[in-house]
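Issue: ligand-bound run for 2'-deoxycytidine-5'-monophosphate - logging full I/O for the record.

Environment: standard queue, default settings, no custom constraints.

Inputs:
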Amino acid sequence: MYRIPHLDIPPLVAAAGTVRLPGSKSISNRVLLLAALAEGTTAVHGLLASDDTEVMRAALVALGCTLRDEGSGVGDGDGAGSVLHVTGLAGRLAVHDAQLFLGNAGTAMRPLAAALALLAATQGGRFELSGVARMHERPIGDLVDALRPLGCTIDDLGQPGYPPLRLRGERGGHLALAAPLQVRGDVSSQFLSALLLALPLVADTQDVVVEVVGELISKPYVEITLNLLARFGIEVRREGWQRFVVPAGSRYRSPGVVHVEGDASSASYFVALGAIAATDTPVRIEGVGAQSIQGDIRFVDAARAMGADVTAEANALVVRRGRWPLTGIAMDCTAIPDAAMTLAVMALYADGPSTLTGIASWRVKETDRIAAMAAELRAVGATVEEGPDRLHIVPPEPQAWRSATIRTYDDHRMAMCMSLAAFNGLAGAPSPRALRLLDPKCVAKTFPDYFEALFGLVQAAPGAVPVIAIDGPTASGKGTLAAQVAAQLGWHLLDSGALYRATGLAAMQDGVALDDEPRVAAIAAGLDLRFGQGAEAGRVWLRGQDVSDALRAEATGLAASRVSSLPAVRQALHGLQLSFARLPGLVADGRDMGTVVFPGAALKVYLTAGAGERAERRHKQLISKGIPARLADLRADLEARDTRDMQRAVAPLKPAEDARKLDNSQLTIEASVAQVLAWWAERGPLQGLAPR
Ligand code: DC
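Outputs:
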């Protein structure tokens, strides 16, 4: 995935609206594994599409499972409309030798290690499991220690107790399953979950008993495991949280269809959002609710204790601000380790200190989350004390809030949590502060579209959405430049010329004379135009018809140039252009972006290139498309259009007084983009921040 270096979040002031959650990570990866081990085909609805599920899927394919996507959900983060059909191995290895790369997905590494260790030991095989550098710092020794006494051969390929691992064995090998297995439960509950997911593969003639040594943390995740095992035909008997019996004769059977519910940990950011900023219309979160099987749903109670007003429906949460400021909290978070991070950020908006305890497991997650959270909360102005398994957070005094560059540690939850620190204006910060989040795309681990979802719900302080205006004459390359700058920054794009082109085209379609000002203005005011997003970026529909090519035609350009000189037409398109300024920012290209439409733009660029150069570019472009053209004609045409654009009475083409001029005659497009981004880095809203 394309990663942008940072994302600037202007001060935010309100939140409202509906968000549909992506599928639960914990459920998705467990269901994938269970479906892959089971007999038969499972139709999985609403599977999460993210980095962590992607590595699991790739591993299962490498092991010989058949995965078939139906619908459009792949890669869009919200798999709500999509179905994945998984045909399982029925407990028999199809591939006996594989190297599996599992990124930083603990939910893939631990259960696959357990399952493949048992399968290799009995059916013969040799499997190597590795991940990113951080995965190799995340412990797995307790799981290995539980498996070796059974007769599994597990080689440490790096530091003992950590991935990478090699799991191997000979066909016909026997496992010592008569005595109970022992596993520690106080570092990660995933070791127990991994065993429970894998042992049914070998519990054919006898019960297999697992005993937990020490206190079991994160019990709700073990409940998810038990719940999903039951759906695949395995009824594990549980005696307290200390002893689990996988019954003899266990065999995975596909339930046929599984629906993955929305991710309750991901819901926590939107619950917090509603508690902080939904003062009017609520934030409605669809995909989890009162019926959720995920432990993190209990975050809702903690959020309520801090002041959130939450109504839980069966499969949705409706959240408003209740008390404000929020109330500080003292809480043992053992049961909700992931969602508890969100409480740490809510603590910024409390009327007093908060203390989170029982969070030692944070230290072995995607990063050392206690240290990371303490550092970043301090960066925005809080006073934080950290202990081995606790955080004590004193919210900033209003005047102590700071703009900050926030590090995200390749940890999706750090990025999602810290985005919520942008509401400092609501906490009384006298001059509300923007935030710069580094490596925002790390959210792809569990929620690829998190920021799109967030920005779909929140409002920035008036005038705070940053705009970069790029103006210049025709064929100067501003469209390409603007599109690439927008992509680099992760911002919206306005090709204002397309609005004038569409108006000209619509007028021609309707047989309206191009100088009939009132009628052309009426067409502009009622323009039924849609710009493609995502995979359809660059395509445009006018009145439901794809006009992407017609818009670029020379005749349309000429018509645009004529209708754009009519003041009533420019007026009619003004509001539409302003509406493109949406979070997190807008790159707008045209003739009057910096002078008339966005006079307050944070950066204005005026592109120039000689008429000869521009005519040559256009000539090459047309010839490459097989359209005959004469250079001299094109040049005359360009110059005529420039003259009209520059001499018209309203909004003539000219550089804004504060525009940076960029002559790109001799520059590659990459060099032009780099120049604009360098200017932005100099002039952006976060200038003067101390680098970190
Ligand atoms: O950038 P372009 O070639 O797509 O623009 C088409 C015409 O629209 C151009 O002749 C000038 C006019 N235009 C304008 O007047 N104001 C803008 N902001 C953008 C384009």
